[in-house]
Amino acid sequence: MSLKNVRLEVMQFLEKDVDALIEKYLIPIDTIWQPTDFLPNSEGKDEAFFEEIKEIRELAKELPYDFWVVLVGDMITEEALPTYESWLMDVEGVDQVGEGGNGWSKWVKQWTAEENRHGDVLNKYLYLSGRVNMKEVEKTTQHLIADGFDIGTDRDPYKNFVYTSFQELATYISHNRVAKIAKSKGNKRLAKMCQIISGDEMRHHHAYSEFIERIFEVDPNQMMMAFYYMMKQKITMPAHFLRESGGKIGTAFEEFSNTAQRIGVYTSRDYVEILEKLIARWKIDTITNLDDDAEKARDYLMKLPQRMYRLADRMKIPENSYQFKWVEPAVSK
Asked: Is 200 a catalytic residue?
């Protein structure tokens, strides 16, 4: 049997548990928070609505240029959700054809519905803040969706679940750190907004990590090889094609990444710490009945964090020399 067929068989075997996993990790629509919970009530009295907007704009002045670059980049990453959903819908074992599709497509749709609120609330906040050039932000968002992405997973569910396990934890870290910076500047509304988004991301991380745990139980050799493959090629961030209007694909991503590192929102050490957490979570060191290739893959994975820490410690973060079109220099602090 080919590896592709084995993966499909495993996905079909695990599908029986998807409804229980949805109930465990996703929150019903009538219960979960919505963007309006954190934004001025446009149905209220005009005076109260405009006073809240005034407060948002005043507090926004306290946050520096680099912070806004990171918040905009995070929002654009969240707004490119159509790309992520279409990618996951094409994964082997996910079938959306027929009434409701299969269990895995049900997961992808409900996960997408939760994720959709993140870009929505951040977009509205940025619009009200008065600190960013929304038209340039919108152009970048449209470019990112139009350009798509290639995260190196093909249609392989094992590789895709490694990617999502890693990436959901990375976005948790990013949103959580942004929340802490906002709180330190007295911006409680934005802090709460980013904190609750980070909570969603952590739940989703635990879900995808459990998918991997279940695959390790039934196909440890190929699951180990998929983990090895993804870490050897390195996890590509979902916004790696980020560009501004008039720019080439990917030209803005490095600068955005440098900015995030400069203010400590997401760093190269965070990348390695996520890898360590996944190794510990999946008990990579104790998995048994591995063939020779999988054993070599395990050895590589176990040694990788220390190698990467050495590289991270030598990495120098450049000073800011790039002016994003998203944030006007006249209002930077």
From this structure: yes
Give the pLDDT of residue 51: 93
The confidence score (pLDDT) of residue 131 equals 95
State the Cα angle at 142 between 139 and 143, rounded to 5°.
85
254 is an active site residue: no
* CA 25 to chain centroid: 16
pLDDT at residue 331 is higher than 50: no
Catalytic residue among 68, 118, 141, 326: 118
pLDDT of residue 255 exceeding 50: yes
Active site residue: 66, 79, 87, 204, which one?
204
Selecting among 79, 115, 255, 270, the annotated active-site residue is 115
Whether 168 is catalytic: yes
Q: How confident is the model at residue 101 (pLDDT cuts 50, 70, 90)?
A: confident
Of 15, 78, 120, 255, which residue is the catalytic one? 78
For the question of residue 201 being annotated catalytic, the response is: yes
* Annotated catalytic residue 206: no
**In the predicted model, what is the mean pLDDT of residues 247-267?**
94
CA distances from 10 to 40, 94, 155, 220 (A): 47, 12, 14, 11
**DSSP-derived secondary structure letter, 131:** -
Catalytic residue among 9, 33, 85, 244: 33
**Which residue ranges form the domains of the chain, and what is each CATH number?**
33-39+47-331 (1.10.620.20)
Residue 238: CB atoms within 10 A of its CB come to: 22
Residue 330 is predicted with a pLDDT of 44
Mark whether 68 is an active-site residue.
Answer: no
Dihedrals phi, psi of 108, to nearest 5 degrees: -60, -45
